[in-house]
Amino acid sequence: MRLLIIEDEPDLLDSLAEAMREDGYAVDEATDGEDGLSKALYSNYDAIVLDVMLPGMSGFTVLEKL
Known about the structure:
- This protein has helices at 10-22, 33-42, 59-65; strands at residues 2-6, 26-30, 47-50.
- The chain is an alpha/beta fold.
- A three-stranded parallel β-sheet has the order 2-1-3.
- It starts with a strand and ends with a helix.
């Protein structure tokens, strides 16, 4: 299973990604809405973990565009 985690808090992003990788998931990371949207549009993910309060573009906007 391939996941995308979009989270701007570095410690939380690292913790989530590490935990998911330990459980056998392939994980990509993004630290802002623009990068997350770009990755989500051009790659195939089974699930996206999306923070709503992101710099630049909010998680709600990312969700609307997806």
